[in-house]
Amino acid sequence: MLALQGDFREHLNVLRKFGADAVPVRRPTELAKIDGLVIPGGESSVMDKLSRTFHLREPLIKAIQSGLPVYGTCAGMIMLSKNILDGIKGQQSLGAIDINVRRNAFGSQLDSFEVDLPIPVLGEPPLHAVFIRAPVIERVGEGVEKIATLADGRVVAAEQGQILVTSFHPEMTEDHRFHKYFLEKVRKAA
Ligand code: GLN
Question: pTM above the 0.85 mark?
């Protein structure tokens, strides 16, 4: 669990509920010991800066290249994307999944909203999804699977190899099928 900034405590609770030995990661030595990583929601520009301050950026990129399963929600999705649209000046991402992501894509009048989203990989029922100053996926590269779209067609969750991303926050509701799905990926990869 990347614990530089954001709502990592909520994720830790969910992961532990499923029996995972989930720990906060702030140092390269901690990163070296894990089998999977969750990057939480929060503020991607701050997380990006802290990842450099804590000397985690390069180790993160290396770990991803060697196949570490990573799940990013909201700001975590922005961190994992290849390209950030509307980032702050100098904001960098980890380039783990071939998508372009627009920050704060829903504008101020639709700052936060909730919607029931059909998600085929999770089956029935649809997932109640909470969006908070959420990003949207504007381009999906070859080899990236779209796993959730809004009624208007905008892509809000995707997967490529070991990388899973959602614009919304499954840690904030009682429906934790995304965490379960991710832990399954981690078990398979380990
Ligand atoms: N808008 C935030 C960002 O740019 C993301 C919001 C969130 O994680 N809830 O990082």
Answer: yes
